[in-house]
Amino acid sequence: MNTVTIIGAGLGGLTLARVLHVHGIPATVYEAEASAGARAQGGMLDIHDYNGQIAVEAAQLMAEFSGLILEGRQQMRVLDPDGTLLLDQPDDGTGGRPEVQRAELRQLLLDSLPAGTVRWGAKAVDARSVGTGRHEVTFADGSVVATDLLIGADGAWSRVRPLLSDAVPSYAGTSFVEVYLYNADTRHPAAAKAVGGGSLIAPASGREIHAHRESGDTLHTYVVLTRPQEWFAAIDFTDPAGAAARVAQEFTGWAPELTALITEADTAPVLRPHFTLPHDHRWDRVPGATLLGDAAHLMPPNGEGANLAMLDAARLGQALAAHPGNVEKALSEYEHEMFPRSQAVATEGAEMQELFSRGTSARDLVAMLTGAE
Q1: What residues have CB less than 8 Å from 357, skipping those under 6 apart?
Q2: Which neighbouring-strand residues pair with 10?
């Protein structure tokens, strides 16, 4: 194994590069973004002790990771649309899902890599086999890189995936509308009180409000709507006030402290449609190439995406280190474990989404979370 090329500097690609580095295997990561700070990296992530934290341990970064944890953010509240508090689970410090800011976790991984590992401003546009397990990647600037091992960690619209699979993402039936409220305790006190110190879920049939308290007194809200893409296309998101008002109409009659999370937003609403690959997506072994994260098993948000990508990366890196003279054995071992793991998570997430689309209420959610009949 002479050259290892990773496409995509998200959490999965960077975790793989780090685990390989720990084992003395150099790799190069190519990323379309111009720099580490070229765009916002999203909000908080709960990194689970049964997948994401295993990857952090494999990357030998647990001490540094612990310094990123936002204390108290594992608190979870469930509210009825009328504002009734149905569940308030405190963060007692014993949970296995500590919250960190995605951008800070990404920066931790970047800082752990040798200088020059990530090539910024390198947008992959095509990948092709050149025989004997080798591949070439073409970038938007016309440059071409040949590699002995190619890993697609490049997300939903992966340019590497077509080498292995004909699968194309399809709309999952739901979308987020994302907004932020800043200085919430002083400027948006009712909404801040509703969210509490961690996260809030307020579900109803075909629509939900999720909010998280992030660092710096910021509330990050995801409005979840089960609507066709055409419904969203009819909203003019270039008119922030109008778009927020239209989305808020879907929550007419809800408690004002909940709708304030939409109507009082300090940022323009951002539409984030959800796409999915088949739950049982897999491919026949292709010499010298594989996928991880969303490139391999795209699914609607269910709290597992980043964790799965990182665990994929850790397992792949460990397999390559365990079989230094046999890349194909390493890739087969990795895929044999990854396929059923991702299928199980995707199936469980789809079942939960179906429950809510059929009308699961806040009280039903509390019953599921607490094990009540």
Answers
A1: 173, 174, 205, 206, 226
A2: none
